[in-house]
Design a protein that fits this description.
By secondary structure, the protein is mainly α. It has a domain at 21-115: Serine Threonine Protein Phosphatase 5, Tetratricopeptide repeat (Alpha Horseshoe). Helix content is 75%, strand content 0%. The protein is built from 16 helices and no strands. Helix 2 packs antiparallel against helix 3 (50-63), helix 12 packs antiparallel against helix 13 and helix 14 (236-249) packs antiparallel against helix 15. It is elongated. The two termini are 33 Å apart.
Amino acid sequence: MLALLCTRPALVQEGEEASAERIRSAIEAGRLDEAIADARRAAAQFPRSSEVHRLLGAALFKKGLNADARGAFRRAIELDAGIPENYFNLALVELSESRYAEASRSLEDFIRLEPSNALARVLLGRAYHNQNRTAHAIEQFRKALKLAPQLPLAHYHLGFALQSQGNLSEALAEYEQEINLNPGFYETYHHAGSIQLGRGNLAAAEELFQKGIALRPQAAQAHYGLARVLRKRGDLAGAEGALMRVIGLQPAHVEAHYALARIYQQLGRKDEAAREFKIVADLHARNARRSSGIAGIQNP
């Protein structure tokens, strides 16, 4: 979770600054129940304090009380619409609940006050992309990178947006930049490997999937990508092993069961192929029942 912005606006009422500092210290120490109780008392004592309501929102959000946190941040904005941090913090609440339209509005308000904040532009781009506003998302990611070329995950998110548009060359270039800047982030290897595999660059794809597996050994999709590379090379035994690892990690991985069935067909292992095809059929049937909402069906 991204950190809440915690600047300290000028406090004017006597005692307000001491209350805010006490609440802030409790939040930083993780004493959230104490911070919430203290902030509620301070909000009653200083009902016009935007800072006290912001701190109340911060403590509530860290406690997981999102609805109350949302209300506190909105009240802080009502009391002083010129403090950028309140819009940013409200956006974090909305993003945590996948309320992307609401998060977009808060981040747009924040950026109007702080147009040079690269992180806010990345978050706004993510919110736009999740609303299928891909062109607007790309614009924000590019602006973020212009402001902060080495900002972690900015190249990744730009690459992912470009890939969703089918712009694979530019997407791969962005993924490569992210790998150079942020080599410990798994997702980039998976997406870059998929592009290289689709282009038939099997050596590059294998290297990327193997690096992804090294970072996250339990990542089923990286093992599945490696299996696809090995199968294209004709290494059926290697592909079988990789697919078995996928199924061990994710037993309901339909594509892995289907690929394994096809490999068994090629190897002449008819009984094992039939078994895997039956598993595929059963998984499809189970998924169809789940999506249909048929009354009386017990989902395993």
